[in-house]
Amino acid sequence: MKEKEAVLVSACLLGFCCRYDGKEKHYPDIDNIFEICHPVPICPEQLGGLATPRPPAERTGDRVMTENGADVTEAYEKGAKEAVKAADLYGCRFALLKEKSPSCGSGKIYDGTFTRTLREGDGTAARLLKAKGIRVYGESQTEALIKEITAVLNCYKLSQQKENDQ
Length: 166
Prior knowledge:
The structure is a single chain. This protein has 166 residues and is of the alpha/beta class. The chain has one domain (5-165). It contains 4 helices and 8 strands; from the N terminus they run E-E-H-E-E-H-E-E-E-H-E-H. Helix 2 (73-90) crosses helix 3 (124-131). The chain is elongated, with a radius of gyration of 17 Å.
């Protein structure tokens, strides 16, 4: 019986030091998902070949540029494709990603001016994961993710129970 759901999780939120500044961004509420989820840690930026630490980058239109003007779009796109491969490999239907990130941000990301101004949009990995049908949540939406996964697991358990009763 399926008791836990595999979920892609931004590695920095789990305490891995993989952010652009070489630090982690552990989000304590994420610890609440371990009872119902098998976290699959990913860092699309590292998967795309970028070093840690690395210069800050933001999305400008369809490009991802560093603060000093280098175009790192290709690395971000490669990392996004690798994140999708990981989701496929582990059967992930959900992702819990770092908000505002040029790769993981979902719904709002920094606008490319390096002034901490937000705009509507998705990071490269979040956008590609969504296009593949994966439900993407940010860390502030952890409780909503837990509720959705709990409902999915309960439906699965109920259907298994009905099959066993027949």
